[in-house]
Amino acid sequence: MGLLGDSKIKALFAGLVLSLVLLVGIAALGLLAALSALGNPGAAGTPMLLVALDAAAPYIVAFLLDGLVAGLLFVALTVAAARRVSMPRDDRLARLVRRAERLHPKADSLGLSKRVEPTSEDRMDELKRKYVEDEITEAEFERRMKRLMDGSMDGSDDQRARRERGRAEREFER
């Protein structure tokens, strides 16, 4: 099921499209009102800019309000899509996301680091792929697989994360 299969994303997308179409319509009507006010013989003594702004003022307000709604819909659509999209699981990406979450506390609320951190099954699949493609020897495969099965990989990841945190904090202090 793709992103457009989700009813919330469909509704947000439809609202965004409708809001953008409405923006174009409001702009066209405002421009038409301003141009027609310029041809009004009753406004002969006032400056043209004031006449045009006076005629287009309600449309400008409506345009700004609809622009705000379109912006909010766009942000909501982006967040909803980001939460539902399939994220690749990779150690490098997980380290990058953890670093971003440490530097920007609000990013932690999205929980992306948990979604991109490779699971044991992902690590085993990658290890099997490397073995099948002759990137590692059988002895190396068995050694790494044993470490994965024993859970010692998790401890080394915690140590690595602590080292990276310390490094990031030292860089931040500089």
Q: Write down how many β-strands occur, each being a DSSP E stretch of 2 or more residues.
A: 0
Helix tally equals: 7
Q: In this structure, how is the largest beta sheet organized? A: none
Q: What is the 3D shape?
A: elongated
The tally of structural domains comes to: 2
Q: What ranges have pLDDT less than 50 throughout 5 or more consecutive residues?
A: 152-156
Mean pLDDT: 82
Structural class: mainly alpha
Strand content bin: under 5%
Distance between the termini: 47 Å
The helix/strand order is HHHHHHH
Helix content: over 70%
SSE arrangement:
Elements: H1 7-38, H2 48-84, H3 91-103, H4 112-116, H5 120-132, H6 138-150, H7 152-173
Helix pairs in contact: 1-2, 5-6
What do you see in this structure?
By secondary structure, the protein is mostly helical. The protein has 2 domains: 3-84; 91-173, no CATH class. Helices cover 78% and strands 0% of the residues. The chain has 7 helices and no strands. The protein has helices at residues 7-38, 48-84, 91-103, 112-116, 120-132, 138-150, 152-173. Residues 152-156 have low confidence and may be disordered.
Main attributes?
174 residues; mainly alpha; 78% helix
Give a short summary of the structure.
This protein folds into two domains: 3-84; 91-173, no CATH class.
